[in-house]
Amino acid sequence: MVKENTFAFFLGCIMPNRYPAIEKSTKFVMDKLGYKLLDMERATCCPAPGVFRSFNKFDWMVAAARNLCIAEQLDADILTVCNGCFGTLQEVNKHLKQNEEHREMVNEKLKLLGDYEYKGTINVRHIAEVLGYEIGPWGIEDHIVRKVNVKAAIHYGCHFLKPTRIREIESSEGPTIIEDFVEVLGVESVRFKEQFTCCGAGGGVKAYSGDASMTIFGEKMKNIDEVKPDIILDICPFCHLQFETGQDYLNKNKSCNYNYPVIHISQLVAYCMGMDQEFVGLQYQLMGQDFIFGGEQITEKEEAA
Amino acid sequence: MELRNYATKLGNISPSHRAVVSYLKNFGHAVPINDEIRKRRIELGLEELPPTAFKFKQEGDDKDLKNIEEHMFELPPVKEDKKEKEEA
Amino acid sequence: MTVKEEKITESKNISKTEIDKQEEEPRIGVFICHCGHNIAGTVDVAKVADYAKDLPNVVKAEHYMFMCSKPGVQMLKDSIEELDVNRTVVASCSKNQHGRTFAKAIEEMGLNRHKHQQVNIREYNSWVHQKEKDKATEKAKKLVEAGVNRARKLEDVETRRVPTTKAALVIGAGIAGLRASYDLAELGIPVYLVEKLSTIGGHMTQLNKTFPTLECPQCSISPLTNGVANHRLIELYTNAQIKSVEGSMGNFEVEVEIKPRYVKDNCTSCGECALHCPVEVPSEWDSGMSVRNAIYKAYPQAIPATYMRDKKSCIECNTCINVCPVQAIDFSMQTEIKTFKVGSIVVAAGFDEYDPSEIEPYHYGQEGYENVITQLKLERMLAPGSLTNSQVLRPSDAKIPKSIVMIQCVGSRNDQVGNQYCTGVCCKFAIKNARIVKEMYPDADVTICYIDVRTPGLNFEELYKSAQEVGVRFIRGRPSEILRDPISGELRVIVEDTLSQTPLKLKADMVVLSAAMVPPEGIGPLGSKLHVLRSKEGFLKEFHIKMNPTLSSKGGIFLAGAIQGPKDISESVAQAGSAAAIAAAPLVKGYIEKEMLVPSVDYDLCVRCGLCKTVCSPAAIEINDDGTPMVNEVACKSCGMCMPVCPTGAIQLLNFSDDQLLDEIIAISGGGAVCENE
Questions:
Q1: Tens place of pLDDT for every residue, chain B, 88 residues?
Q2: Nearest neighbour of B17 by CB, restricted to A14, A27, A51
Q3: What is the Cα–Cα distance from C404 to C437, expressed in whole angstroms?
Q4: Fold of A136-297
């Protein structure tokens, strides 16, 4: 039995090493909601599903299993805030639970890496579905102290919902889990053309060919720009990085003039739950540095006489 | 996926992708941390280095990364230059 | 034209014969065939004949060049006449090939035809062991000995003549059911035609035009619908479904549940009631493209012309009752149950159009995607008298679309949704509709996205060419999704033109999905009631895909039309005619002759477990009140499944009993078989 209200917090690469504000926000949110977040000592890259899996699928599974073992030793489900990490860890976890042959092969190799043995005792969770379904818009309402008033272009990314048969969260054709959740925070979701395409970063694309990555991304920004949202809301640090550096690149190289603040869902929820805007970290980000969240304070509910 | 794995076995892997693998082996991460971010972490009230394998390596305990380097993601050497192929 | 009459010999009695058990001494004649070189080239037939001569009860063992020839057959007959042979064994080809030949021959000499045992030493032996002559000969000896052992205990099998009920039931009044009913009635057979909807004619009446001649289906079908409605031998029951089916071929008893129309037969079809009815609901017959009232007639030419009240939508305001000039409306009408006794049943329950909502990327039926429709809906729009006045209009804003994209193979050839088959008619009707639409609106872009274009048969390649000539565009590629611009609401079809390897985003004011033909709703319960097998796709399974596609898995029940597999109108009509003819045969003759190769039960051994009933696929075994099985000898198909499941061996199939089969096995195994005797 895994510990209740406890998660092994998987950090990944980009969040701790490029956007620590997301880490701060997540810790704030989970703490306020009553969850304990345990450090996963000695964790590494998940490893990234786009690059490492395409090099050597088996080693990718082994490296992922090693990270899973760390959580198993902590006796807690993994919480991740990144689509890529979720993609790798959830998929490998599910696969090794079901496929005995691969499990044995992986455990054989794990021995070479240290005292690790994959047992299949934990689950892997993504903060978007923990917030969206487990806590839900009804549950978060009790915890927020202010509502914002923004229009957001919501970017789901790729690995969160797909492949549908493995993730089993929601249909990837017309999902509403994030819209429904952030509505109660005061966010109006604006739909834009081809909303559910990739941001262009993952799949090994950004690492291999920056140009291709930017071409895909450029299309997406064009569609987002058409609807003129206040912010771009994402649930993955790699998408986050792509939206940030991408807008910068397009401004410098394709004479665009984008300045949309890029917000990860952790940052948004943390802010609504009372975290100061300075910790949201917009001042460190490239885009939308002048953006003020604003929003209205929610008056304290009057005590019943 | 199988095709890409096979291509890697043959050595057909771009330099930038090879670099990513070396990052994993050295730093434990595809994207290593830098000084600017270290400072930022402190400013935000987090510990300077996240408790991942890299931190432990800095403190002298680099068992895990060494093992990863040795046993995982062995890449064949860079293919001979195209010139040789043309001559063949 | 002379009709060849069967010679009725002594053994084929009309009344039941007593089956003599083992009073006569078996006298077996064994004949080994050379079959030219086919057998003799590998097997030493002389040796085998010699071996057979010494087996117990064998009074004659010979070999001959061609047993199936006239002299060969004569050898059998002579042995019966001269040596009182009463069981014959011919070792030659397979039972399917010439078993009947020899069986008939001995019957002509007065023996029961089941006293012949056919041994296959060709397909089972000489043809597969051509390089091992010695071993083949040894094997032939064993096979022949097995045959002799079997022959020894063979008993007479009675052929019973069962009188049939001269009446037929046809389920479904679509084009196939109508044709079958009419053909049966013309043969003088009373027909009960049962239709679950309130009108007859089926899907054909919903179409705008039929391929390849682009005729009006209402006109084509009208003589038939009227012919059926007015035929003195056809009783039509609409709003009716099958409740239960008992009996077996030649004598079925069927219970039919007829739901009330709430309108009496004196209805003049004037339409006053519908005119004043305040309730409007989508019209099912119009595929949702228009509305009907709670009291309604499905379409102007509907037969029966009597109106009908949809109790679920009715708010019981009684307006219709008040305005009806002939007081035909009666809310108190009740469901009726009628029982029909029939000799044959023809199932013509048709098909449903596949519902594409399952294919999520096409967004059929979702908000914002009203302009994604199916071909049936398009037919309804184009049809005369439609809500759009036969114009093609976008459901979202009633404007004429300037670009129409049709997508083929929706729900067919699709592993993801589990329908692998090709429906076979969608290319034809899509091309038909595309050409019609393009000719109506020459300035519109009409595109068909296909995987393969399949238009076999006379006049269809011509139709395909003519569509291309008027400017219909064909793109080879299966669209991956239909995108919608959230601001403008415009649809785009994403498809790769695989011939030029170009990804495309086709602008589409309207998308028409060519949906598959799938088994109709309710086929599961209906199939169970009839005890017929279904194919893995859900259609009713035919007896033999090549040689008998009209007979179902159960004797006396015949299939006609799309219920047996997707097909077009011509094929359905052809099959319906065939079904009518085969169904009529036993009814016109007045009897069915069935060989009573049936199981018998030893009630001392029977432990009343009831397992035999559970495995009987034609449902020929019923359990009596005391727990013992009762066999319906007419329904029995002699499959023998009841035997292996019986824990005590109480039920034994005639001529296939455990000890008879054991004798055969002992011989084949070389005499050393270890067995557990009951």
A1: 888 888 888 888 888 888 888 888 888 888 888 898 888 898 888 888 888 888 888 888 878 888 888 888 888 877 655 444 444 4
A2: A51
A3: 9
A4: Rossmann fold (3.40.50)
